[in-house]
Amino acid sequence: MTSKSPENDLTFEPRAFLSDLFRVAVAAADPYEAIVRHLPARPRGRTIVVGAGKAASQMAAAFERAWGERVEGLVVARHGPVETCRYTQVLTAAHPVPDEAGIVGAEALLRHVEGLTSDDLVVALISGGGSALLPAPPQGFALADEKALNEVLLASGAPISAMNVVRKHFSRIKGGRLAARAYPAKVVSLVVSDVPGDSPALVASGPTVAGSGNAEEALRIIRDYRIDLPASVIEFIGRERVPLPGDEAFARNEVHVIASARVSLEAAAAHARKLGFQPLILSDSIEGEAKDIGRMHAALALEFSANAQGLSKPMVFLSGGETTVTIGGGKYGKGGRNSELLLSAAIDLQGAEGITALAADTDGIDGSEDNAGAFCDGGTVARIRAAGGDARTYLAGHDAWSAFDLAGDLFVPGPTGTNVNDFRAFLIV
Known about the structure:
- The chain is an alpha/beta fold and 429 residues long.
- Helices cover 38% and strands 18% of the residues.
- It contains 16 helices and 12 strands.
- The strands form 2 sheets. It has a 6-stranded parallel beta sheet, with helices on both faces. Strands 7-8-12-9-10-11 form a 6-stranded mixed beta sheet, with helices on both faces.
- Helix 7 crosses helix 9 (215-224), helix 9 (215-224) packs antiparallel against helix 10 (231-239) and helix 13 (337-349) crosses helix 16 (400-407).
- The longest helix is centred in the C-terminal third of the chain and has 17 residues, at 290-306.
- The radius of gyration is 22 Å and the shape is globular.
- The mean pLDDT is 93.
């Protein structure tokens, strides 16, 4: 796509332009380029690689390529296709709800860092999704307990930062415990952030990074978001002490956020500007209920379309972050937070001309299906209706995937090998 004047170019395709912006944003979070910029010093002893997250296998392969020497590696990635590594063993587990394979992976990682010395180096490759991929319930509890905790957290509407504070209080590996197990070896964590604000302690619930959250904060989150948990789980969380950044085990460690939503949004904005579009980055850390954030984005698009507010068309505004979908009682359908956000926006944009939007997860998967998200424009709701569906009914049933499938508006780029949260682009011409 090379057009600089879409209003005068009959060959201009908004969806191709938005797909191109997504590609540029994802490329800016490429694991290899990010890792090369943050390679640690070579140790006198062994080099141990650990990792977890949706981008774990891609990060491991990239690290091996950049390191150029043999490593002892073990990472846990999501079930499905994984990158081939020369030295690193790649285990897979379920996401977003943990499974027995995740227990196996977490136990293997804990064993992998045992018996190390101060001459050894542990490189931790951490990306989003690691919380679900590394279930390690406390002694006396079972996978079913951690799975139930994860399910109620996902349905609570709590932001990812709050969910991870609770998760790390009910685990033998999260909240810095994996790094503590590796002591006295030095641990260098290379983190691809998928959380608003890019706190490395919150990405994958920080298996190698100690955070500041305490038991009182975890209990407050449980109370404020009305998270229904068994009394035994709440009692355990209330008395559990998590490792703290000042503990001796973390004194020599390093933590680097090597890719984030901000970097990706700035890359997309630069690309848009190069092609003759005026970009505007709203924020890289927008949180809130997906359907509400969708309406907010639609309102901004309509306002900018009618009154540019000092901006010139053609323009595109961008945002990142991680919204939530609060699921009440009853059945719910297919779809993730990006699809739900965009269906809500599509309802408010129906009939509007010159506005096209894309909302997608940068890991290539939104929810449980194979789409990263969806496109919408002023005709989306009409296309859903013409195919026999009703957009509002689908939105109420959290079934945005089915709505966009009817409209032919799903966005399916495939897994990307990285994860820097959500990507939203609203084009106005």
